[in-house]
Structures are given as structure tokens and as C-alpha cells.
Design goal:
The protein is α/β, with parallel strands linked by helices. It has one domain: 3-Layer(aba) Sandwich (Rossmann fold), CATH 3.40.50. Helix content is 29%, strand content 25%. It has six helices and 14 strands. The strands form four sheets. A seven-stranded parallel beta sheet has the order 9-13-8-1-6-7-14, with helices on both faces. It has a three-stranded antiparallel beta sheet with strand order 10-11-12. A two-stranded antiparallel ribbon has the order 2-5. The longest helix is centred in the middle third of the chain and has 19 residues. It starts with a strand and ends with a helix.
């Protein structure tokens, strides 16, 4: 069984800056991390590796510095890591990104012999975009079912059994025939910490597979800016409004003043 994990390197700070000319995020000199939900996806894959003997492959698309995120995944225990890096991928929206990642998965499957019992795991969404679209779009591109917001999963023979928490007192259990894609939430597990020796081995000895657009036989009209159906028109930081109201009087008077203030602002 093959388990693919899709991960993304994102800014590791909330103090991001925006280029006023291009309207894009300035990523230089900003610490980068694995998208937090993607770490839960990695852990889910590793647990399947421990229980089911699955081979795990991490895939990421980005510039060369995204290699660090993949090496961290290797240090956690992932078997193989692949970086999709090419100037032709630049400017990709979620649709172009999902196509590119799907092409890489197809290439791996072709090299392995196109096994039918594979699983793709993604974090539900990335903190730098919050679209929650890429996972579903990868599944659509591959022509496989997908289960979103998974809080627990089990592989039984050739089926995925996925658990979802719909509310504090309501949950659901779904079954899907492999191959299938699932997106996971932070409730699914607690990501493990790699050992010092595993980190050293991942950064010093293990290799990252690097594929370009040509390597994955990508259609140029479906990748990067040209393959994107949406473009960012403007990114800006909203102005912070700091407004303090001091309420005085008895408890009843203060409660009445607070209710009147909320009604005036149409918040209740």
C-alpha cells in the first residue's frame, strides 16, 4: 500500500509583509514551517506505516527552500520525499497546484506499477491561504473519491474507514474504496517529534526527489499562472480598530449599557 502525503511550506509568523507593488507576500527573511495541519497528515501516514506496513511518500510544490519542509518530514519517518520545483509552476492557484501534484502522483504510480490500493492524505487547509480546496481538487483530478475533515482513519483490507466530528455530540463514520483522498483536522492525532539522529540523517544523508514540469509531463496550459483560473487582485492588511468603552454603574446598569451598545452596532 502507498500513502502519499501532500505538504506545504508556509510563513512561520503572523507578522507578514505585503509588497505594495505586486500585492504578494514578502517571503524573504521570514521563517518557514510545515503547514501545521500537514504535520497531522504526516503523522496519520506514519501511523498507517506502523500498523499496515505502508510505504509513505511526501510531495510538496514550491521553490528550492521548500526542501527543508520535506527533510523534516523525512526526519519524522516518511520514506520518500519529492519536491516539485520549476519556474513554470510559479503563480499557481489551487486548481493549477492540484493538477501539478496529481501529475506527480500519477508518475509515482506509473513507476510503481499503478497500484490500486493507495491513499492520499492532506491537511484540511493551509494557514497562508485557508481555501481548503487543494485536497478536493487533487481527488477530482485523479478521479478518486475524497473524505474531508477526517478526525480518525483506519485502513481495513481495501477500504478507508474515516471518522468525522460533526459537533460536540454528533459524529459520522464513512467508508470509501481505495484509492481515496482524505483531508485531516488537528483532532486526528498529535504529530511526533523527530529524534536528533533522525534529523541529522534526513539533512545529511537522505535525498530529495526533484521534478520539473517536464519530469511530470505537465500540460503547460494547466500549470503556474497560465493554468490558473483565479488571480489575486489585491492583498492588504486591514486597519486595526481599537475602540474601548468604559461602562460604569451597578451590575444591572452595566448589563443594560452593554446590550444597548451591541444593539446599536447591530451585533445582537
Amino acid at each position: 500500500m502507498i500513502v502519499f502525503v501532500c505538504i506545504k511550506q508556509v510563513p512561520g509568523t503572523v507578522d507578514v509583509k505585503i509588497d505594495p507593488k505586486t500585492g504578494s507576500l514578502e517571503r524573504e527573511n521570514i521563517p518557514a514551517i510545515i503547514n501545521p495541519l500537514d504535520k497531522h497528515a504526516i503523522e496519520a501516514a506514519l501511523q498507517l506505516k506502523d500498523r499496515n506496513g505502508a510505504e509513505t511518500i511526501a510531495i510538496s510544490m514550491g521553490p528550492t527552500q521548500a526542501e527543508e519542509a520535506l527533510r523534516e518530514a523525512l526526519a519524522m519517518g516518511i520514506d520518500k520525499a519529492c519536491l516539485l520545483t520549476d519556474k513554470a509552476f510559479a503563480g499557481a492557484d489551487t486548481l493549477a497546484t492540484s493538477y501539478t501534484i496529481a501529475q506527480a502522483i500519477r508518475k509515482f504510480l506509473a513507476e510503481i506499477g499503478d497500484p490500486r490500493d493507495y491513499l492520499v492524505i492532506c491537511g484540511t487547509q493551509a494557514i497562508d491561504g485557508d481555501t481548503a480546496q487543494v485536497g478536493a481538487e487533487i481527488a477530482e483530478e485523479l478521479g478518486i473519491p475524497h473524505v474531508s475533515y477526517t478526525t480518525g482513519l483506519v485502513i481495513s483490507e481495501d477500504k478507508l474507514i474515516a471518522y468525522q466530528s460533526l459537533s460536540s455530540d454528533e459524529s459520522s463514520v464513512l467508508e470509501a474504496q481505495l484509492p481515496v483522498l482524505t483531508t485531516v483536522t488537528k483532532e486526528i492525532n498529535k504529530p511526533r517529534l523527530p529524534t536528533i539522529s533522525a534529523i541529522a540523517e534526513a539533512f545529511d544523508k537522505k535525498k530529495i526527489i526533484k521534478w520539473s514540469a517536464i519530469d511530470i509531463d505537465a500540460d503547460k496550459s494547466k500549470i503556474g499562472y497560465s493554468g490558473s483560473r483565479t488571480q489575486v487582485w489585491k492583498i492588504f492588511s486591514p486597519k486595526k480598530k481599537m475602540e474601548n468603552i468604559r461602562l460604569t454603574g451597578t451590575a444591572e446598569e452595566i448589563a443594560q449599557q452593554l446590550c444597548n451598545s451591541l444593539k446599536d452596532k447591530r451585533l445582537i
